[in-house]
């Protein structure tokens, strides 16, 4: 692997952790990053927490001088926090770590020994139940199958499929070359609090990024019912489908890519329409909310269909409450190394 001039060959990675009220999990996240010898910087941005997130993060400093904790006076969102960390970093490679997730041992060694012909490189994610996060992990020895992710594959991989467990490609946490980000002026969109990763990665791909995906697993993600991504606001959905519109207007895409982008936008817009309807229903009542949609019969049909679908899912969820979720599982298909 060719290490860019001016970086430390032994520790070229900066791990960025944006955290808000994460005192229960931030210590594990920071320790997992500091345990990796390829990590030269760990930057925690406490995004206006009301708990002891910053103090807990500082308490697990290993004395190596690699940990930096930045405290923001008020919550500004993950995009703003990550951009502040990028400003404070000088490492050749940047990796995002969520505050309730963790790095699995050897992750960066496995990724950085891959061919250097990439701008972004991601690996598989092990999804575990938050209630079992401290239990010993049994991580399979997964074959190092790798492929280059195209713009079309990325967009299509972020379109949810009915009846299929969520496995959007946008959930991946790639290691990114700072030189590529800087050369193309790429940073997180600070107006977005939902889908900001998807937006950044898609703009990078549309700018020509070479995005490699390796099926080995190096990232552990906890799954919880009350995650921030599950509590997005109506306006956040609006910002996400408008991001698709901007990308379509600003970048040269193929006809297939534009078609996929339109399908993704339509899916997010449909979710927005449902949330907007539920907001109005709470404010003005069911009858008035339905009346407002009478002039948009297609939207009304989608909203009513989605309301019934969600009620059906809620009933099934209650009836299956005693059935444990199928976790842990891998985000991407995984083939054991001994099957080669």
TrEMBL record:
Residues 14-117 form the Glycosyltransferase 2-like domain. GO terms for molecular function: transferase activity. CDD domains: Glyco_tranf_GTA_type. It comes from the Bacteria. InterPro entries: Glyco_trans_2-like, Glycosyltransf_2, Nucleotide-diphossugar_trans. Keywords: Transferase. This is Glycosyltransferase.
